[in-house]
Amino acid sequence: QLQLVESGGGFVQPGGSLNLSCTASGFALSSYPVSWHRQAPGQERVFVAGISADGRNVKYAESVKGRDTIFRDNSKNQVFLQISGLKGDDTAAYYCAVNSHDVNVWGKGTLVTVSS
Question: With 0-12 CB in 10 A as exposed, 13-18 as middle and 19+ as buried, what is 56?
Answer without folding.
Answer: exposed
